[in-house]
TrEMBL record:
Lineage: superkingdom: Eukaryota
Presence of keyword Glycosyltransferase: yes
Keyword hit for Plastid: no
Keyword terms, alphabetized: Glycoprotein, Glycosyltransferase, Membrane, Transferase
Protein name per UniProt: Uncharacterized protein
Pfam families, sorted: Branch
Range of residues in the leader sequence: none
Organism: Acrobeloides nanus
Primary localisation category: membrane
InterPro entries: Glyco_trans_14
Cellular component per GO, a single term: membrane
Membrane topology: Single-pass type II membrane protein
MF (Gene Ontology): glycosyltransferase activity
Length: 170
């Protein structure tokens, strides 16, 4: 088994989750990771999800981890969680925690246009207004149907490497 590094947060297909908890027993790997001999908590799901030998339904592939072998233009390496590291793009708020930029109210309009599912980090103790504005924007988009002209870019999501196995590329 080749280890893959990832995040604690991940997006998994229903087929993979059913396989993981219904047919597979990852107990030994979990114990090895907990012992600290093979990796950390950021390795478990990434390794299971990317191990070709498991032939897991809804799984991923180590081949897809190589950017030179991806036949699509991706606007995000990871769509589950957007993170602005201290050495990455400019941090408008100039507030950091664990070398990660804390997003502020100035970032809200940009964040809602990105394809990521979550933004890491928005903290009420750093900028409560940012969190309030984001909640209001999401509420309005969901219940009041503001921005009704803005359509979800289904083509982008359907052509992600983690999804392409379930749908034909557009």
């Amino acid at each position: 088994m080749r280890f893959a590094n990832g995040y604690d947060q991940c997006s998994l297909s229903r087929e993979f989750v059913d396989y993981l908890f219904g047919e597979m027993d990852p107990t030994i790997l979990v114990h090895q990771l907990n012992n600290g001999h093979f990796g950390s908590n950021e390795v478990l799901f990434a390794t299971l999800h990317n191990t070709d030998e498991l032939n897991a339904p809804g799984g991923f592939s180590h081949i897809c981890l190589d950017p030179s072998k991806q036949p699509y233009d991706s606007r995000a390496n990871h769509i589950t969680r957007l993170t602005n590291w201290i050495d990455g793009e400019k941090c408008i708020s100039k507030i950091f925690r664990n070398n990660i930029c804390i997003y502020g109210v100035e970032d809200i309009n940009r964040l809602i246009k990105l394809p990521h599912l979550f933004a890491n980090k928005i903290m009420p103790e750093a900028d409560f207004v940012a969190l309030t504005c984001l909640y209001e924007k999401l509420f309005n988009m969901t219940y009041i149907k503001q921005d009704h002209n803005k359509k979800l870019d289904e083509k982008f999501y359907k052509n992600l490497a983690t999804v392409r196995g379930f749908t034909s590329p557009l």
